[in-house]
Amino acid sequence: MSLSLLNRFEGYCYLSLERRHSYSAQQMEREQKALAFLQEQRDHLIEARDRERRESKWLREKIEGIIRRFEITERFRTRSRANTHTV
User: Keywords for this entry (predicted)?
Assistant: First the structure.
């Protein structure tokens, strides 16, 4: 009788380990999928950040060019006004 009880206990332990292993494998698979998703999201955010930096750099350079042209035009106007007043 005690042997039967021992066999039953061993069977229960084996099933318990199987369930735990199966749960662990499923849990690991879910965690790996979640990690892959987060890595993909991180990559998208890095790409977006880099694109934003490139675009803002391009826009900044464009604005600086416009400001330089405006300043050059203003200097030219003030010189030409100064020249007309001296004549």
Answer: Coiled coil
Cα–Cα distance measured from residue 23 to residue 27, given in angstroms and rounded to the nearest whole number: 6
If you compute the radius of gyration of the chain from its CA atoms, what whole number of angstroms results? 37
Q: Read off the DSSP letter of residue 4.
A: H
42, with CB counted inside 10 A (0-12, 13-18, 19+), is exposed
By the 10 Å C-beta count (0-12 exposed, 13-18 middle, 19+ buried), 48 is classed as exposed
User: Tokens for 54?
Assistant: 């490139």
- pTM of this prediction exceeds 0.70: no
The residues, any chain, with a CB within 8 Å of residue 33's CB and separated by 6 or more, are none
